[in-house]
Amino acid sequence: MTEITLRIQQGETERTLTVNQDLFTIGRLPECDLYLPFGGVSRRHARLVKTVNGVWTIEDLGSKNGTQVNQNLISNTQELHHGDMIWLGNASLEVLFTNTVTHCTNQETIAEYASKPRTIFHNVKQLQQQWIEADSPEGETSNKDQTIARLKDLVDIAKNLCAAASIEEIFSQVQQVVFRYLDSIDRLALLIDVNGRGQLKLMNAATRDISQQKYLAGEGDWISRSICQKVFEEKIAIQTADAQEDERFSGEHSILVKGIRSAMAVPLWDENKVVGVLYADAHLSSSHWANEGEEELSFFSALANLVASSVQRWLLAEKLKTEEVIRHRLERYHSPAVVQHLISVGGLPDGRLPPAESEISVVFADLVGFTAISERLKPTAVAELLNNLFEEMLQEVFTYGGTLDKYIGDCIMAFFGAPEPQLDHANRATAAAKGMLARLERLNASGFWQEPLQLRIAINSGKAVVGDVGSSQRVDYTALGAAINLAARMEAVCPPSECVITEATYFMLSESSDFKEMGHYRFKGIDRLVKIYQTKTVTQKV
Q1: Confidence category of residue 312, pLDDT binned at 50, 70, 90
Q2: Which helix (H) or strand (E) segment is 365 a member of?
């Protein structure tokens, strides 16, 4: 008959126990079959079960920190074998079967398992209340007193975090708390998913040794990115007593070069969304966190929950400020629908729209006889005329989803097809042009100005580079390329109150019957003949 013996080790204490019953409970309650009053062990932690076939298994009984067999956290019942190492918190149990071929245990193997550094993956929800509850075997009265004290501490921390308006102030509060409560921590870092795209950005870092603070600057190459990413993606807390010995992290550059031995990382998670990671490390041997790390990680996780709420508020405030800046700037150029779309997708990395090649239709609308008009008017009257005219004409550009490039004296330059692609950009451009001509006709009829005004409008379609162009002091959102140059030249051949388009635009139109062939023209700087079409008539808009 197969019998099982457990070799129990906690710290330097070691003893053996023979299991003589088919159901065998292990935990911190005195009534358990194996009483283990050690850190990290739950009241009813795990159970050994002998099946009808004589096979021994182990199952976790919903413990806070889980049960590990040979460094692997078990989720279901798992069969045990001779030499298996069971880890419950800070205690290790070696499994010995009496009917195996070799009755004596290889002492080197035992020592290797017992001393092997561990990496523990914790469920964050299970850690949330552990530090507050002051779960210890000292008695109910001391537990209650300690719980009240810790709750008061968390309330004070929460108040200070709520008062923090910037990410620097938030981190300053976290730094003070961590270095006050956790003597083992050498360095601390706050990483946040600023853009909500799963990319952690180092926001702040600090070290207990102020003289070493300057070495934390830059991209944070001392931080284990693989640990942080795992914590962020899987919503777990990680505590590693020796990262260099764990094959999951041992090859990472930061761990090897910086000599990281112990590290803790917890997600900034308020049960709705993970917004970042709180990370800390220490140049410790594994013995410290093997004995005291459980409680430290519980506190670290409880603190992270408070920090998560403050970071969420900061991210929301920053988003609102950014959206307001973007909206204020873009409303000068784009239709409201385009502005809203750019804001919703975060269309301005680093505050700019990077230049990119786009297929567009560009429109130049020029006021006929502007030189003569400006000769007869005072400068203030000229400005009033242009302001009123541009206000009216731009309504047509925005109605069809166009983008204002710039005002060039008395000329409006706009384009369709960027920043958001528009497959029907040629249709939109010609519709806007017809709308401007019809609108100006109505304005003239209503006495908009002291004399009738006329426009010349030229449109060309093709590839262009569209985006923010300029210096660090001034940036313009504009379109560049040969297609734009040709459209600008075409105004010279456009009759008053008409619109001319190139052959490229003509063949993109879904309905081209409103345009007639005008002829072939040669333009300055363009060494080819260009076929031009012009509007037949301008239909009055209702």
Answers
A1: confident
A2: strand 356-367
Distance CA 261, CA 253 (A): 13
In DSSP terms, 456 is beta-bridged to 366, 498
Name the packing angle between helices 286-330 and 167-181 (round to 10°).
170
In order, the DSSP letters of 95-158 are: EEETTSS--S--HHHHHHHHHS--EEEEEHHHHHTHHHHT--TT-HHHHHHHHHHHHHHHHHHH
**Amino acid code (one letter) for 309:** S
Query: In which order are the strands placed within the sheet that holds 56-60?
Result: 34-35, 23-27, 46-50, 56-60, 78-79
Rounded distance between C-alpha atoms, residue 157 and residue 138, angstroms: 27
pLDDT digits (tens, 9 = 90+) for 79-127: 998 888 898 887 888 888 865 333 333 343 333 433 444 555 655 555 5
**For residues 430 and 121, what is the distance between their CA atoms, to the nearest angstrom?**
62
In this structure, how many other beta carbons lie within 10 angstroms of the beta carbon of residue 408?
11
- Cβ pair 282, 191 in contact under 8 A: no
C-alpha triplet 161, 306, 188: angle, nearest 5°: 80
Within 10 Å of residue 18's Cβ, how many Cβ atoms?
10
Share of the chain above pLDDT 70, in %: 74
Q: Residue 269 forms beta bridges with which residues?
A: 274
29 and 125 in contact (C-beta within 8 Å)? no
Tell me the pTM: 0.47
Of 413, 404, 417, nearest to 360 by C-alpha is 417
**47 vs 21, 43, 62, 291, CA distance in Å?**
11, 12, 11, 23
Residue 238 neighbours by CB under 8 Å, 6+ apart? 119, 120, 121, 122, 227, 230, 231, 263, 264, 265, 266
- DSSP β-ladder status, 85-88 and 56-60: unpaired
Q: Cis check for the bond before 419: say yes or no (omega within 30 of 0).
A: yes
Asked if 428 and 420 count as a contact pair (C-beta separation under 8 A), the reply is no
* Residue 64 main-chain phi, psi, to 5 deg: -70, -40
How many Å apart are CA 417 and CA 402, to the nearest integer? 8
Dihedral of the alpha carbons of 484, 486, 491, 493, in degrees to the nearest 10: -170
313-345 pLDDT, tens digit per residue, is 888 888 787 777 777 767 666 666 566 666 665
Would you call 116 exposed, middle or buried from its count of C-beta atoms within 10 A (0-12, 13-18, 19+)?
middle
* Residue whose C-alpha is closest to residue 414's, from 369, 460, 364: 364
Taking CB atoms within 8 Å and a gap of at least 24, the contacts of 422-425 are 424/510, 425/359, 425/360, 425/361, 425/461, 425/508
d(CA 401, CA 418): 10
> Residue 293 above 70 pLDDT?
no
Residue 298: Cβ-neighbour burial (10 angstroms; 0-12, 13-18, 19+): buried
Asked if residues 504 and 462 have their Cβ atoms less than 8 Å apart, the reply is yes
Angstrom distance (rounded) from CA 49 to CA 52:
10
